[in-house]
Amino acid sequence: MTDIFRHRMEAALLAARPLARGKVVGAVGLRVTVSGLEARVGDLLRLGDGPSAVLAEVAALDGDRLSCLPLGPIAGLSAGTPAVSTGGPLRVAVGPDLRGRILDGLGRPLDDGPPLRGELVGIDSAPPPAMDRQLVDKPMPLGVRVLDTLVPCGRGQRIGIFAGSGVGKSTLMSMITRGTSAELNVVALVGERGREVREFIEHDLGPEGLARSIVVVATSDTPPLVRLRAGAVATRIAEYYRDEGKDVLLMMDSVTRAAMAQREVGLSVGEPPATRGYPPSVFAMLASLLERAGPGARGSITGLYTVLVEGDDHNEPIADAARSILDGHIVLDRKLATAGHFPSIQALDSISRVANKITTREQRSDAAELRRLMAAHREVRELVEIGAYVPGTNPEADRANAIWPQITAFLRQDIDERVDAETAWYQLQQLIAIA
Q: Tens of pLDDT along 15-40?
């Protein structure tokens, strides 16, 4: 039985089921309670009739009562409002026609394009078995010089971009979107300001970037469940293309806002708060979501996830949990950003855990040499600034100080500048040669 035939049979059986109705018996905060209806956790219910009906997802069970979280505004619901099961969980359309499209957090079109065509699939799926995954042994150029040389990314790697607010995470993502060599980009904007969405799509991404991208948007004013599902929808779309044998770049901005949405969901259905108010389900969600990216049996998903660190504390719970799951981290520095140094990547604090697998011996030697020079400069920087450093005390620091303007020029890159990986390595080699 083919997959298409099986899905058609499932749809026919679903349509032939007798219609069962329940009713709303309560609504507190984000939670709507429904009784008189049989449904499973994750199923969608339709609350109300006509155009004012709203979808809600079953999040918890308590005897014969269902605790549901709405996917839209619940103004107008009252005790006794009819509730009908849709027969299954949220499904999204996946197929080759999604390129260049802009979708909302539930996979519905936000642009003026034609209706979506393709196979309807559930948004939750299991990660590929560990023994079926390919090895991460090929580079994935990102078009950013400092990343491709000092923090190289592998095809199928998952890496986090850690920074506080306003340090340049979204701008760096747009730069990567235009400069990467990936066949397809899937971009999830989770919890973003509504003002920034169109600006990102039209200015940062541009027509060229959008043509080979799929954008999933859930702004900060959407219900928490929609923000949470946006990350899963984007991941499911990326999985479809990976299973077709393509190399996909999945970028999510930000995974922290998805975790915050899960916190709202968990607390609304009665989960006890744990670390800094995050219930246990948040950390389980992070692991399951991030593990779905990576190499598969055929294609790959290279995951770039921005992590918004609260108060620039890189050891806060979400940042710490994400760093332990991901295969590397890129740290953005507020001091560099305020000094006009872009991209504001603190290369010494950033690391790629697969760098040794995707670079040559010569490349690793050049990158290590530049890191040594940068570390030596950082050790004596304050002494140099106050005039207390005596030349000759540290030979490596003397070398770094002598060419520091050239090092700074290498680490900087204009947002519209594209540097391929071969050129970046050549420029690093030339820099080391004059040191």
A: 555 567 889 998 888 889 999 888 88
